[in-house]
Amino acid sequence: xxxxxxxxxxxxxxxxxxxxxxxxxxxxxxxxxxxxxxxxxxxxxxxxxxxxxxxxxxxxxxxxxxxxxxxxxxxxxxxxxxxxxxxxxxxxxxxxxxxxxxxxxxxxxxxxxxxxxxxxxxxxxxxxxxxxxxxxxxxxxxxxxxxxxxxxxxxxxxxxxxxxxxxxxxxxxxxxxxxxxxxxxxxxxxxxxxxxxxxxxxxxxxxxxxxxxxxxxxxxxxxxxxxxxxxxxxxxxxxxxxxxxxxxxxxxxxxxxxxxxxxxxxxxxxxxxxxxxxxxxxxxxxxxxxxxxxxxxxxxxxxxxxxxxxxxxxxxxxxxxxxxxxxxxxxxxxxxxxxxxxxxxxxxxxxxxxxxxxxxxxxxxxxxxxxxxxxxxxxxxxxxxxxxxxxxxxxxxxxxxxxxxxxxxxxxxxxxxxxxxxxxxxxxxxxxxxxxxxxxxxxxxxxxxxxxxxxxxxxxxxxxxxxxxxxxxxxxxxxxxxxxxxxxxxxxxxxxxxxxxxxxxxxxxxxxxxxxxxxxxxxxxxxxxxxxxxxxxxxxxxxxxxxxxxxxxxxxxxxxxxxxxxxxxxxxxxxx
Length: 576
Known about the structure:
Layout: H1 2-8, H2 14-18, H3 28-33, H4 46-58, H5 80-86, H6 95-104, H7 111-127, H8 134-147, H9 156-165, H10 174-185, H11 192-209, H12 215-227, H13 235-251, H14 256-268, H15 274-287, H16 293-305, H17 311-324, H18 342-355, H19 361-376, H20 385-396, H21 402-410, H22 421-437, H23 439-443, H24 446-455, H25 468-477, E1 485-490, E2 500-504, E3 510-516, H26 531-544, E4 548-552, H27 553-556, H28 561-573
Parallel strand pairs: 3-4
Antiparallel strand pairs: 1-2, 2-3
């Protein structure tokens, strides 16, 4: 029966008729060969959905010629010697079928044999890449996704094909452009060339295909942009994503993975829409019970990034996240560690710290327990920067994670080089906070002190964008009538780039002046500082003995210089 099936197999059936039938079970050989312990080809992953779309899209273009190669020509397919004898005879459009045979018939085969066959096929494919059409390259990439899903992007053929395809984007169909973005998204690497390719594809899609995009196509595009950390600059595309989200949320046309995928791209692109927040909040209010920790760990940061305060919704998301960590079977209701990923927990705590949304001390302790347990389980072995980010989030929320800090210093993680400049800045800010608020604890950790001595003299560039009212107050404060000297606009806290004004009164007292404007305050509040500004004010109180003047935006916006001068003079008099 199997032989009859092989005789009738068509050259194109690897894509839809064979490969898509395996979407809902993990390829057994991946586990045996141990090529990818964390394969994404399980039944409910986004990658499976996207591949299914590609398979359905591709079938429209396939011819119906019978396959020229048969499995029996290469029997057994996993014998490198036999494969090597015949592989040069395989035509380009037959390689997907050959890969399918390798995918299908490798049971109970030594892993090294399969790996050797994969290498043989790739060498042959790479030698013929200059003769391939875009369609043939896409078909081969698609087939590879089933043989080695987690390693496709590490293939030499992947590298060569995505670069070769970059010269054809102006001539690609919409369907092939969508496929291209999917494969680009597999790289997850900061490659400037590929980043530019994706940006150009986004422009083409926005100009030519925006109104023809299906939801699945839009998700493929936005998922690739997020994975490659590409900010979408095309306002038409951003508005289209937002509109799709709003309609989907209101009419319940989108499932949660699609919602999160679209939302992540808007977040990385710094896109704000009050209408979107209204729809999102209504959705959360009604569907909170269906949200899990991973979804919440992406939704909450969207609120945090935009400083959008909705106490009811933030409380729902925080409570739901913490509930999902609870082990219901335990009489003590201890927090369960297995149902949350380390990066989800890091994002969740970061969002809380940016919003300045504190939880009780006991919950902080239990969250710290989870972090420590996850470290012991190896969850952070490939990203120790997250440990510093977690410690910083705890400290921002006014909780000192002593056990986590001890782990960081005693395990010598402090000596590991940060992966990015941003990670180094966060590590330095953590040291700055501890040096001010918990000097004894700080000095008891020589590794932290050593790192601080190495980095403390680096300049902190003040973030002055959107701080027009702060500039206005500085301009007035410089006038002689106000009575201040030694005025300076800058960062009073090392490595915290939210600037303020430092000055000395006529009596010689050092004071700080802070303007609570929209750029550092939460939306929907009466000038309530965001989490980072709350941290700054807390630290300023430590170093200035509560000598900080706080000015709300409403106190100076639209006011003339004389009004501001009198206001300042009155506030300064309280410190004399």
